[in-house]
Amino acid sequence: MEVFGIILSLFLLMFFAYRGFSVILFAPVFALLAAVSQGFSPMPSYTELFMAKAVTYVKAFFPVFMLGAVFGKVMEDTGLAKSISHKILESLGPNYALLSVVLACNVLTYGGVSLFVVVFAVYPFAAALFKEADIPKRLIPGSIALGSFTYTMDCLPGTPQIQNIIPTNFYGTTVYAAPILGTIGGLAIFIGGMAYLNWRLKSAKGEGYGTGHTQEPTLNKDMELPNWIISCIPLLSVLIFNYVFTKVFVWDPAMLEPFVSLKLPMMAPAVRNVIAIWALIVSLTIGIGLAIAIGYKNLPKDRGLQKALNAGAIGSLLAIMNTASEVGYGNVIAALPGFKGIASALLGIKIGGTPLVSEAVTVTTLAGITGSASGGMSIALDLMAKDWLAWANQIGLSPEVLHRVASMASGGMDTLPHNGAVITLLAVCGLTHSQSYPDIFALTVFKTAMAFVIIAVHAITGLI
User: Fold this and answer.
1) What is the pLDDT of residues 85-96, one digit of tens each?
2) Which ranges constitute the DSSP H helices of 245-336?
3) Which of 86, 294, 395, 414 is the most buried (most CB within 10 A)?
């Protein structure tokens, strides 16, 4: 009965999220439903457990969410993101429309632009290119998803997306963890994903772009976009400075000592646990400054800069609060007696004699339930990272492999139909789940499988 209460709570959360209800409101509702069903008092469960864990998450990752959102909004409003995507799509042309869209998304996401901004920046040009090439419009979401929601999000070493940042807080790793495994996984996803999309294109021969579509963009061919080479400077700066402050710059381990006596709540145990976050904070700040300097003249004259900065900052609040609510929910569930059996079963997955399969299954399952890669991974790591790390230390497994597997698994089943990014992508493109979600789901299944493939690669070769 205890396990049933948890399963019912999870089902209701997933159902309401799919129906478009805010998890900020309903995550605590269903967390308390599960807690009350197992004899926990509702108010302490909410204020002392749910909120405490949610606030801990906000403390750790809010700067990354905020600066990432501001960076993406500045890149969007200055036209720098559109300039880059337009150049790539224009250069490759209609004959390589699918590849053009994927590569345009790759450049922007790997450079630190948020996934949601990428959708708005790339879609107008993708629609124009697909129409010119007479390719079915329904393939655009799958192309954008492959370029934005997969390997540049969580596979490739150094990617500044939040899904690659979160594990650093639990394993003391950096965003460059397990670079060989990440690169192998990323290349496999790119090649397999492109092969699938091209197969879908061939099978749709004669269908054409289609008619009666909504959300059709109108492009002004005479519009002046910033020079694409200059537009790349902020993206490159984020990557370069992130590498410098992670791998080259030496952070003083004694930096936290003056704060120990203050007995600050939720303080990081050591500098190495926050280097990845500090490095990205500095890098994104530099990127924002460069984007403003380069694209300032393209901003609207009427408080354009103010609006861009404010919109980015305010927009980040929804993202961080959604994820924090999911983290709070997960921790309430983890405290319940009924969860002990579930946790034991997950930790009992000992395929290959390592915690990797257990970690991958747990992370991708929770990501699928919550409809959030970052939310599902945060819940899983908050609950079980210490056990996985202890297990890894016993068998001599590098924490870097734990990092990469967790990151890749988070970007697996997260893109189920109720995922916010999927819903936004389809809405922007003016398409429905029935028209375009089958392609996104196929890529989701393939992407999920790749997390287990790199586990096998590591087991066979020992590569990191």
Assistant:
1) 888 888 888 889
2) 257-260, 275-295, 304-335
3) 414
